[in-house]
Specification:
By secondary structure, the protein is mainly beta. Helices cover 13% and strands 37% of the residues. Strand 3 (40-52) and strand 4 (56-70) form a beta hairpin.
Length: 173
């Protein structure tokens, strides 16, 4: 069972009586942070800048983290570095609201955990690769070609005249 953390809940009460344009930075740093059962990030750090606006609060976030991913070529686990930036507008309840704004709750607490989680998830590549030179797996026996060449690759290169097979430069050492 995952314990719900309130680590990214910020009370913006200190901004309400400030002049428009007043800013405060809220830095954070965690060696490991788990947003839910599926997503664990390491070396999570960044800063959230809160700025008083005429109708509420503007937040600017800059977040970095590392997370384990599986390479889509060789299926090995590797650590990926993710960097995300975001901007969100929060509006007081008695002000007009546009479609991209959120109402500030009456208690003044803004929870940035869902935003940070979502923006970091958007940074995960669709087909992550461990490095640009990853050779992948042999399509016949499944051997990781980064660890050594198998006999199937030589046979494929000799028997297939298909340009797609012969142009797989990462098969050739």
């Amino acid at each position: 069972m995952i314990r719900i953390s309130r680590s990214f809940r910020i009370n913006i009460g200190f901004l309400i009586n400030q002049t428009v344009g007043f800013q405060r930075e809220v830095p954070f740093e965690y060696s490991t942070y788990q947003f839910d059962e599926e997503f664990r990030f390491h070396d999570l750090h960044g800063v959230i800048t809160l700025e008083r606006t005429k109708n509420g609060v503007r937040s600017l976030g800059n977040v970095s983290a590392k997370t384990p991913l599986e390479c889509s070529r060789c299926l090995e686990t590797f650590t990926a570095e993710l960097n995300a930036e975001f901007e969100e507008i929060f509006t007081f309840a008695n002000r007009p609201l546009s479609e991209d704004e959120t109402i500030i709750p009456e208690n003044g607490n803004l929870d940035f955990a869902p935003l940070i989680r979502d923006y970091l998830l958007l940074e995960i590549p669709y087909s992550p690769i461990c490095n640009q030179d990853c050779k992948g797996l042999c399509p016949i026996c499944g051997q990781n070609l980064n660890k050594g060449r198998c006999s199937h690759i030589n046979r494929l290169l000799e028997t297939h005249k298909d340009s797609r097979v012969n142009n797989r430069k990462y098969w050739i050492n």
